[in-house]
Specification:
By secondary structure, this protein is of the alpha/beta class. It has helices at 44-52, 58-63, 75-78, 144-153, 166-172, 240-248, 264-267, 274-283, 306-317; strands at residues 8-11, 17-18, 26-29, 32-33, 83-86, 92-96, 99-103, 131-133, 158-162, 178-181, 185-186, 195-199, 219-223, 228-231, 253-257, 288-292, 331-333. It holds the Pfam family Lactamase_B_2.
Length: 338
């Protein structure tokens, strides 16, 4: 029900196609983007509850020294093969039909949070990048120092952004060309034979004191004549997975977040646990499942190795097919997956 003095608008990039019939654009309430139709604002009381409550897995987490394995080198940069290479957290190098992309580049420590594992090469060695895809504006996905490094080494780089994220990019690198999109919109900066769509996620935005949900969040579909690759971004479980499958059909490769899910009272609406990620993957009728958003930064209460252990247990049970857990820097060749 509409509240008194509530202003509702629907926003999109009017220059781009909307591929979902009857989708008016992303709903905003008093200038804040919503998840589907409902406004989600994380409550400070839940954050305080988290910070003042003993983690029931405290000892287990302390004893868990899991760090993702890493393959050092730059061969994947020099290669011409189509591939997916995990670089830690939600950062992937993706090469499709010769077009090279990076998702949510974060190469360095975060404010007050150190990386638990580095990159397979120096950030300055990441060259030949054509596009950078940003799922949302949180600092562990849109990092100013990483943007500067990437653009310095790739002066022809272009960015694909959610609605209202342009100012964040400009504050980091004022000269990088970019295009913003709302949900169910197709970017038009890609070469012939490759389509990239911005699609829903269930999340939220905040970087400062006064910008709650002022920037959109979402996921990406990279589509060719022979393949569909889905990058889920940061998301909780919501009805958008069913909507995406109904519109696009099965996903050949799913890059799915599986970490930062405990405590559930705080994280459930914005992050997937491994069971939820597999459920979403099955809804998407996924082929290969590649996990992300675990092991690189300590952001939550679960032990570092728990997401991987749970995924392996789920795969053994037969609930999912196609689990692939690459090391950081390990190329996953797309021709071997299709």
């Amino acid at each position: 029900m509409r509240q008194k003095n509530e202003t509702v608008r629907h926003l999109k990039n009017d220059k781009l196609d909307v591929v979902k019939p009857d989708f008016r654009g992303n709903k905003t309430i008093n200038g804040q983007f919503v998840n589907g139709s409902e406004l989600y604002t994380p409550k400070l009381s839940k954050v305080l509850r988290w910070k003042t409550t003993r983690n029931p897995q405290r000892e287990e987490k302390k004893a868990d020294n899991y760090i993702p394995p890493i393959v050092y080198g730059t061969d994947f940069i020099d290669s011409t093969e189509d591939m997916v290479v995990w670089l830690g957290h939600a950062t992937f190098l993706i090469r499709v039909n010769g077009l090279t992309m990076i998702t949510d580049p974060v190469f360095y420590d975060l404010p007050m949070i150190k990386r638990r594992i580095g990159l397979p090469c120096a950030p300055e060695q990441l060259t030949g990048i054509d596009l950078v895809l940003f799922s949302h504006g949180h600092r562990d996905h849109l990092d100013e120092r990483s943007i500067k490094t990437l653009y310095r080494q790739n002066p022809d780089l272009k960015a694909l952004l959610p609605l209202r994220a342009g100012d964040l990019l400009r504050s980091a690198e004022p000269h990088m060309p970019y295009q913003e999109a709302g949900w169910y919109q197709k970017f038009d900066l890609t070469p012939e034979g490759i389509e990239i769509y911005f699609l829903p996620a269930s999340h939220w935005h905040r970087r400062g004191m006064f910008d709650m949900n002022k920037v959109l969040w979402g996921s990406f579909l990279i589509k060719t004549a022979t393949m569909q690759l889905y990058f889920a971004g940061d998301t909780g479980y919501n009805g958008h997975f069913e909507e995406i499958e109904a519109l696009f059909g099965p996903m050949d490769v799913c890059l799915m977040p599986v970490g930062a899910y405990r405590p559930s009272f705080l994280m459930q609406k914005s992050h997937l646990n491994p069971h939820e990620a597999v459920r979403a993957y099955n809804v998407l009728r996924g082929g290969t499942f590649i996990p992300m958003h675990y092991g690189t930064f300590d952001l939550s209460d679960e032990p570092a190795g728990e997401p991987v252990r749970l995924l392996k247990q789920i795969a053994t049970s037969g609930i999912m097919q196609g689990l692939r857990i690459p090391a950081i820097g390990e190329p996953v060749l797309l021709r071997e997956l299709l």
